[in-house]
Every structure is written in structure tokens, then in C-alpha cells.
Amino acid sequence: xxxxxxxxxxxxxxxxxxxxxxxxxxxxxxxxxxxxxxxxxxxxxxxxxxxxxxxxxxxxxxxxxxxxxxxxxxxxxxxxxxxxxxxxxxxxxxxxxxxxxxxxxxxxxxxxxxxxxxxxxxxxxxxxxxxxxxxxxxxxxxxxxxxxxxxxxxxxxxxxxxxxxxxxxxxxxxxxxxxxxxxxxxxxxxxxxxxxxxxxxxxxxxxxxxxxxxxxxxxxxxxxxxxxxxxxxxxxxxxxxxxxxxxxxxxxxxxxxxxxxxxxxxxxxxxxxxxxxxxxxxxxxxxxxxxxxxxxxxxxxxxxxxxxxxxxxxxxxxxxxxxxxxxxxxxxxxxxxxxxxxxxxxxxx
Length: 349
Hints:
The protein contains 13 helices and 14 strands.
């Protein structure tokens, strides 16, 4: 895939070279204060990455929601995939509505479902979104800014950069020659860097190697996190899990490999992989059902992610798949070693 991407980039070089030039000029203008980054009197924590695709932003944002559950907190996202425009929020409605996925987009809707007391808002312009949240009757003390690293109009109180252990930014290149949204030097804006999806047995020597290759400044803090998979939870019916031996893994996320590997160590796995943020059609549902019924083990189940589960709760999908034993796997992040992430981040709040 990377070879094909390189060939296409070379063929389209006269046109594609304008993207990195544009990124470089834009960042230069902000670095020289020719374009201004605004701050706010509300504490803001930004979470983002340098590359396209998933690096674990959602579970790390969830971690922060849980960490600060004792203070009024809001989550502000762009709302990728939503059917609405402008500023939208769940404020004033503590009852989850399945239509939130159209109103907010997949990931914000999932957060609204998991954390009813959390104000979840979306706005393409994060600065405008923060201004709306600041005017609310239930004014938050903390705003979590999701996927905000390249949104330089706002300057978060603390900026967290995520990079995936198996696909770090220092092995990648800017689009169209790689998958980076901007040059690696963008890492210098981060206050905290987290290497995500690490092996749980990551050695200290390997961590030291990453510290050297990341080329961070002395003031930047570095942490390593990993994913904890919880027991699968039934989506449609209260179906027992403990006797399952074979699973149909159903994913519409950017990087399903860690989940697939986790399941393969425990079960026989057949994987149906759809594009990120995929909306399941009637034809998809028919194929899913047919594939499930073709599995040989009598003790079998469909397993999906929390993000995909929200789309599978849509009435048209639920109607076609509700007879199947469908489960989703909740995940949480944890930090490796004698970690001080909580203490570090709380100093900013």
C-alpha cells in the first residue's frame, strides 16, 4: 500500500507538492505570530496527532473524562461524519438519543452515550465552539479539545500529541509521500507526548530508544500507554458470552489490527473490515448475517468495536441484525511503568 502511495505521489508530484508547501507556510505564519493563536480563560486540554488515521485519540480522551469527572467538563470535537453544520451540543439533554450520531458524528455520540453528565459539543471552528461553551448556563471548568493538533487558531492550556507504537511519526513522511498531516517538526508544539498501543511488556531499553528517536525537547513529557480490553458486552440482547469459541469480527475503524490480534489469541476469528466511519447498508447487513451463519462453531458471536456498535444501533441496521448475538468490546487505556501522567496533567487544571 505504501509503495502504491509513493508511485501515485510521484506521478502527481507537480500538483501534490503544493500541500507540504502550504502546510509549511501556514505553520511559519503562526510560529512568527503573523497569524494569531487565541487562548481562553477556561482550561483546555488538546489531544491530537501528526498522522492520518487512528492513534487512539478517543480512548485517551475517555481517560481524561474519567480523570476529571469531579469537575464540570465539556468535550469539543469537529464531529466528523455528522449530518449537521455549525455548533451543536448535548447540553440540556441528559438522555442519550440514537440520532446523536447524525447530530454529532460517531465518536462524540459514543462519548455522549457513555458519559451522560458530560457536555459533548461539535464545531468545525474550535475557537467558535469554545466561545459557545463559555456562554452556557452550565459553564465548564475544563474543555477537552479532540483532534485539535493542526487547529492552530486556538492555543490549548496543554497540548497532548499521540503517536502509535507500531507506526510512529518518525518513520513516516508528510502527505502525499506518507500519512503525516504536517512535518515531524510539529511535535515541538506538544507539551506531552504519548506513545500509544504499546506492548504491555515494553522494556525500559525500548522506551529509551523511543525517547531518542522522538527527539523531544527537555521540557516535553513522554509517556507510554497500552490498551485494556474488557469483557465483550451484548448489544441487542442479554446474551451470555462465556461459551463463545468463534467470532466474526466486524470493524469500521482505521486500525483494527490490535483488536484482531487480541481476539486471535483466544478465539477463531473471521474478520470483515470496512472503511473508517462506515455506515452499514442493507447489503452489508445481508453479507454480515450470511458470513456469521457460515461459521462452523456452534458457539459463535459477532464482535465489534464501541464506535461501530453505535452505528449498529441505527434502526435500519438493528432490524436486520438483531437476531444475531452481537457484542462490542469496551476498551480503556492504561499507562506503563511507574507512571505520573495523572499528576502531570492535573498541574495544568
